Amino acid sequence: MIEFDEYIDVDKNEIPYSFEIDLAGEVFEFEVNYNQAHDFFTVDLFKDNDTLVIGEKLILNRPLFRNIVNIQLPKVIIIPKDRANSATRITYENLNETVFLYVGETDE
Known about the structure:
Largest sheet: 4 strands, antiparallel
Distance between the termini: 13 Å
Mean pLDDT: 91
Radius of gyration: 13 Å
Low-confidence stretches: none
Oligomer: single chain
């Protein structure tokens, strides 16, 4: 079983914005965007100025980048979870309040 102890802090007041993050010893750039019309978030992922993923929608309890095969992707699992189990979807109101982007190590 994968332990999800750490999470990626998302500053909703800065969106759209990007930041660098160390994941499993590699530096990535995350860009967080918000679709106000439909109340959802997306993430773009870059590494060494290369675009790896554009527009990955954050979906509750579904790992990011799960359908993408690319050896440059982070060697961790990133999953939006609501530890209180009160949310049914990710919204502006609950992101980084009860829903967080948890990071877990893979077995690879």
